[in-house]
Write a structure and sequence with these properties.
single chain; 375 residues; Rossmann fold; 6-stranded mixed sheet; 12 helices; elongated; binds inosinic acid; binds magnesium ion
Length: 375
């Protein structure tokens, strides 16, 4: 399937030229029979309706007048609710007339409500609404939409006049915003729970992107990126890297439209970081779908970490430092669980068992989590 890129987003083909043509034809027929022998005034809502109105006007076989009305409500891919009139129509052009609004798309209905309110002031004999596309799940108003070309699900579309940040209007068919097809989640747990091991397996099995903050810092430092240079100063001093630097590194990864979904490991470590992360995801129209906690009893953790200390030769892995790290985890990191519990996104997995067995448990939980759509 041929996808296209507009600004920072990827779109996939969705509604063909033929399907659009059929919807326009259907609308034209319905509106012609409604208008009968009257000469209606069509109010073309700019900019989005310019292609639809053009095809519609060529298909419309009787006399009609065309007026142009321009509003603006959208910023990016979300309705702002605040609608402004940029180009008005003189009242005398509509007074006592059969007026039909030609909309490209009706989403929440905020724009439509404003249009109706403003056009009613010009005292038309009748006011009807025609839209090429209609999103019934998104519509929040009660005013009836009289003529509908095609109902579509609550997806963001571009093409045939419709834009994403002013791009995509000239596409002859409709494309739909490509959504992540996997979840974004935090793999959580104390040191020694097996997060890294499990995350790598899940990454390979599910095609996810794996963000381990430690690896991310090392990568930036090795490649001497501007963020790497900043982080290095702290790491060399033995200090924690400030949240702002970590967040900037994460921002780069989540902005990549090719990413299907992310496993976070080692981040967020504090509630403050969790709040940062939620905000960052929201800015990109994304959301953390889950926090999955790997549960392992403390005695086993200590045993595992001591074992790891022996084989990896990490000098800091003696019983005392291990106990200290676990305490740090309980005090500072564990509250992150409650933060996501309150959002209804908390899942727990028994982390004791062999690697494949634990992985299967994780996969079961993941397949049960539905993609949450941020609307
Ligand atoms: P509403 O006020 O939420 O009904 O949004 C109506 C306006 O938002 C339309 O006239 C479009 O300009 C824009 N819009 C709504 N949905 C989409 C979409 O899926 N793609 C592009 N623009 C849209
Ligand atoms: Mg628009």
């Amino acid at each position: 399937m041929k996808t296209i890129k507009l600004q920072d987003k990827i779109f996939e083909p969705y509604i063909s030229k033929e399907q659009i043509a059929r919807a326009v034809k259907k609308l034209t027929g319905e509106i012609e029979s409604y208008a009968g022998n009257d000469e209606p005034v069509f109010v073309v809502v700019l900019k989005g309706s310019f292609i639809f109105a053009s095809d519609f006007s060529k298909a419309y076989t009787k006399n009609a007048v065309f007026e142009f009305y321009r509003l603006k409500s959208y910023e990016g891919t979300a309705s702002t609710g605040d609608v402004k009139i940029l180009l008005d129509i003189p009242a005398k052009s509509l007074r006592g007339k059969k007026v039909i609004v030609l909309e490209d798309i009706v989403d929440t209905g905020n724009t439509l409500e404003k249009i109706i309110e403003e056009l009613q002031k010009k005292q038309p004999a009748e006011l009807k609404i025609a839209t090429l596309f209609y999103k019934p799940e998104a519509y929040q108003k009660t005013y009836p939409v009289d003529f509908i070309g095609m109902e579509i699900p609550n997806d963001f579309i571009v093409g045939y006049g419709l834009d994403y940040d002013e791009l995509g209007r000239n596409l002859p068919e409709i494309y739909r915003l490509k959504k992540r097809n996997m979840i974004d989640f935090i793999l959580f747990g104390p040191p020694g729970a097996g997060k890294g091991t499990q995350a790598r397996i899940l990454r390979d099995k599910l095609g996810l992107t794996y963000i381990a903050t430690g690896d991310m810092f090392r990568h930036h430092i090795k490649n001497e990126t501007p963020l790497g240079k900043k982080a290095k100063v702290y790491i060399e001093r033995g200090d924690l890297v400030p949240d702002e630097i970590t967040i900037d590194m994460i921002k780069e990864i989540i902005s990549d439209p090719e990413v299907k979904g992310i496993i976070f490991d080692g981040f967020p470590r504090t509630v403050r970081q969790a709040k940062f992360l939620d905000k960052l995801m929201a800015e990109k129209d994304l959301i953390i779908d889950a926090l999955i906690a790997l549960e392992v009893p403390e005695e086993i953790l200590v045993k595992r970490l001591l074992e790891r200390g022996k084989t990896s030769g990490r000098s800091d892995d003696n019983e005392e430092t291990i106990k200290y790290r676990l305490k740090q985890y309980h005090d500072k990191t564990e509250p992150v669980k409650d933060y996501y519990k309150q959002q209804g996104k908390y899942y727990e997995v028994d982390g004791v068992g062999d690697i494949e067995e634990v992985n299967q448990r994780l996969l079961n939980v993941i397949s049960g989590i539905k993609l949450r759509e941020k609307v």
